[in-house]
């Protein structure tokens, strides 16, 4: 992955004095699959709209290949959007919907027919061309929206939760198709989702947002294994999150017990946050454990058992292929490598983290 | 290419929208109303229209439309109603477009400005225009004040068209405004996103989507314009004779309820025919003429 294709510089946006995006900085490389991930209302759609040209930022600039496009009309921008809401043109057939962008560009009839055919095939809706949008199911409508955007082969495709109305199986198939398409056409994807699993499996880069601010930017592995703060840790995957004290380098105290870890540089006797993933909670005999607790529930999850263990007044979640029966007293041990120590947020309005 | 998801695509997703069964009895009061005020008068009209003074069946009431005076009145009515409808459409569409584009708070206020005249009595409104247009009326008085030549305004086809446009314009604005304001802002955005400029977006998206509103607007202006007699009486001063006036005179001046009913039936046929014509040019939204909804 090479150069910065899009730079988002210092973008802020408020609606009725309520800040929705606050001094956002971000860049997107050519051919990157970048995912915006965050809870509902954190400003993901607003950011996409600013990129698409439908919303004007209060401050800041958008650069595309170094050129300022902040004031450029939406129809002049080299990107297409798959909207979160159903925005199909209900007075046109499905084929005419897909052909819309190509007709505007004045492409030839045969070319358009070809592309419409191809796009329908791509989203698994061959033969739907003559149908009208009001006869489609929600998931079919979403896929036609994708088809309508991709036929234009934009440099950048903005996708706002494009698969949210699909069932699990179809969603997985479409995820695969989208990635294949991206490779085939060399399109840069900016993808919005609040499904963390979708984000982890599809993205090159994940941007975790909360309350109009970027919490962390990184690869899926970074985000999952080394969350920079408790919000990211909590939002991505399940986790046991603790208020803890960093006693000294490589030693942390949580729930009154001392655990060895590998982190350094957090000072001495400093309050920190600690996350331990459920799959990293080792269940051992009471004598071997750093702390002991009682199994309060066991759920079979297919690949593993999910166990709830009450230890030192905290409900630990543990994932293990070995089952400990309910009511049994067990020991808990954590590999030092699997204890992730994070700084506590300095204040609510902690400085935005930037990936530059 | 392997397309594993095709087999699930049809089965798992439910089609949107469904009808509610068993709510038909809710239409009961409406049916009663329709019976009293639509069906019974209609039956009476047909009874009178197809009989003579001796209660015998006859076609003569209907064929009296062939009378040159009546034909002329019908042709003029069609002409003036068409002109008024076109003028209303040309005026109303931009107004509706502006109204729909305004922020919700201020649009309600400005929409009121256009609806307000409708709250005034129809007769009063038209009489007010009579006062404005008369030979010694307000406009000519002003012209005289500036030493400009007086104009004959009243009792012309123009005055009648003006009366129609003034009275029926809100009926064109409202349905178009309603349809326009229901168009999702994001659908318009999507067109822009796909490369359409503002004008292309208007021509390809906004205009076609507003068609049902335009068609009900046309209906709501054309039909009363075609059948009016009050506007012609007040602003045409007996010099302009439309088919509505002819029918009125048959009823009121006591000439013949039978001929009046016969001509009414003919006029009804013309109204239905013109609606069918609109529907033919736009098979997609023929429902809008009848039900106002697809
Ligand atoms: N046009 C608007 N006027 C006023 N407030 C708005 C407007 N658009 C968005 N907002 C507000 O801005 C905030 C962010 O909205 P946005 O649509 O960007 O969220 P999102 O991250 O896309 O959420 P979701 O995951 O639910 O789609 C929300 O609180 C929303 O109510
Ligand atoms: Mg959104």
For the largest interface, the chains and their residue counts are: A-B, 38 and 32 residues
Radius of gyration of chain A: 24 Å
Structural class of chain B comes to mainly alpha
The beta-strand count of chain A equals 20
Query: What CATH architecture of the largest domain in chain A do you see?
Result: 3-Layer(aba) Sandwich
Full CATH superfamily name of the largest domain in chain B: MetI-like
CATH superfamily of the largest domain in chain A: P-loop containing nucleotide triphosphate hydrolases
How many separate structural domains of chain B?
2
* Top CATH class of the largest domain in chain A: Alpha Beta
Residue windows where pLDDT falls under 50 for at least 5 positions of chain A: 348-356
Strand content of chain A: 25-35%
What is the molecular shape of chain A? elongated
Helix/strand/pairing class of chain A, anyone?
A: alpha+beta
Sheet with the most strands, sense and barrel status of chain B = none
Please tally the β strands of chain B and state the result. Answer: 0
* Cα-based radius of gyration of chain B, to the nearest Å: 24 Å
Structural domain tally of chain A: 2
Major sheet of chain A: 6 strands, mixed
User: Share of helix among residues of chain A?
Assistant: 10-25%
Task: Work out the oligomeric state of the chains in this entry.
Answer: heterodimer
The hetero molecules present are: adenosine-5'-triphosphate, magnesium ion
Write the layout of secondary structure elements.
The complex is a heterodimer of chains A (356) and B (294).
Chain A: E1 4-15, E2 18-29, E3 33-37, H1 44-52, E4 59-64, E5 67-68, E6 79-82, H2 94-104, H3 109-122, H4 138-150, E7 156-160, H5 168-185, E8 188-193, H6 196-202, E9 205-210, E10 213-218, H7 220-225, H8 230-235, E11 240-248, E12 251-254, E13 257-260, E14 270-276, E15 282-284, E16 291-300, E17 305-311, E18 314-320, E19 329-333, E20 340-343
Parallel strand pairs in A: 3-8, 3-9, 6-7, 7-8
Antiparallel strand pairs in A: 1-2, 1-4, 4-5, 9-10, 11-12, 11-14, 12-13, 14-20, 15-19, 16-17, 16-19, 17-18
Chain B: H1 6-12, H2 28-49, H3 60-63, H4 68-101, H5 104-119, H6 122-133, H7 138-145, H8 157-182, H9 185-193, H10 198-209, H11 211-227, H12 230-236, H13 243-252, H14 257-281, H15 286-290
Helix pairs in contact in B: 2-14, 4-8, 4-11, 4-13, 6-12, 8-11, 8-12, 9-10, 11-14, 13-14
The structure holds adenosine-5'-triphosphate and magnesium ion (MG).
